[in-house]
Amino acid sequence: MKNLIRIMLEGAYSNIKRIIFASDRVTDMEIRSRVLEGRVVPTEKVAEISCIGCAGCKNVCPTGAVEMVKLEEPVELMEGLIKKEIPVLNSETCVNCYYCHDFCPLYALFGEAGTIHPNNVGVVELDIGELLEEPVKISDDKIAFISQFLADSTILKKREEETD
Ligand code: SF4
Ligand code: SF4
After folding, report:
1. What burial class does residue 124 get, using C-beta atoms within 10 Å of its C-beta: 0-12 exposed, 13-18 middle, 19+ buried?
2. Does 79 lie in the same domain as 132?
3. Ligand with minimal distance to 153 CA
């Protein structure tokens, strides 16, 4: 009984400390200060130059947080593959599941960093022309699964032609 009372009192004391002194919100307080002082710099979510515009990220996103927007000037990446759109990630509806990154074919098929990331895509500079010429080294089952999400499967068709 004494132990139970002691646990209850300790719990009540911890909660009072949390409420009055924000004792377990050290990180939150730092983030709040950074926001209030304008020290938070928005990060890039899409590496626009290296992205091939396949819309895999949009198609796989469970919350509709990725929208494809038209490029003013389409870009020919390789014969038969023209990039016409690039994704824009809306952080307000993103739930950080990472599907967009993990299904991005540059990551899923070629093992390079994906060109979309819910937090910070970082610097992704790929020689797309050269990369897309490389053979895909994953199982046919995995390719079939990923290909459901690609709006443009030119890179997969090309691979099929090469292995015929
Ligand atoms: S990480 Fe965000 S944007 Fe990416 S698929 Fe998940 S919810 Fe969509
Ligand atoms: S899945 Fe990757 S390559 Fe395809 S549009 Fe999205 S970011 Fe670009």
Report:
1. buried
2. yes
3. 2
32 and 61 inside one domain: no
pLDDT in tens, 68-101: 999 999 998 888 788 999 999 999 999 999 999 9
**Cross-strand partners of 67:** 88
Start-to-end C-alpha separation, the chain: 77
Are 23 and 64 found together in one domain? Answer: no
According to DSSP, the residues that pair with 66 across neighbouring strands are: 89
CA of 20 to the centre of ligand 2 (A): 46
Q: Which of 103, 97, 43, 53 is nearest to 78 (CA)?
A: 53
Q: Which domain holds residue 113?
A: 56-163
CB atoms within 10 A of CB 66: 24
Tell me the per-residue pLDDT of 22-32, one tens digit each, with 9 for 90 and over: 666 656 677 77
